[in-house]
Amino acid sequence: MFDGLANWWDNAELWLAQLWFPVQFVLVVAVLGPLCLGGAWLIDRIVDRVAAWFRPGRDDARSRGPAGEVRPEHEDLTNR
């Protein structure tokens, strides 16, 4: 199986190497462009997911005051 794959790869490489340079450039960009964009999108999604684990939850951010003190759930603001 690996011999067949190696022969196919050698033939594809030889075919690409014998093409005119502008055609080589267009083919490489047409293949690597979408692969790089897909890889960047995947890395972005993974980083967003990992960052979400380290972000405080919505309840954590609302229940703490500016100095980090814990506020009661229902604070009565009418007596101030």
How are the elements arranged and paired?
Elements: H1 2-17, H2 21-54, H3 58-62
Index terms:
80 residues; 69% helix; elongated; 0% strand; mainly alpha
Number of strands: 0
Q: What's the alpha carbon Rg, rounded to whole Å?
A: 28 Å
Order of helices and strands: HHH
Sheet with the most strands, sense and barrel status: none
Unreliable stretches: none
Helix/strand/pairing class, anyone?
mainly alpha
Instruction: Kindly report the average pLDDT value.
Output: 83
Span between N and C termini?
80 Å
State the helical fraction.
55-70%
Strand content range: under 5%
Shape: elongated
Count of alpha/pi helices: 3
Describe this structure in words.
With 80 residues, the chain is mostly helical. The protein has a domain at 20-55. It has three helices and no strands. The model has no long low-confidence stretch (mean pLDDT 83).
Give a brief description.
The chain is mostly helical. Helices cover 69% and strands 0% of the residues.
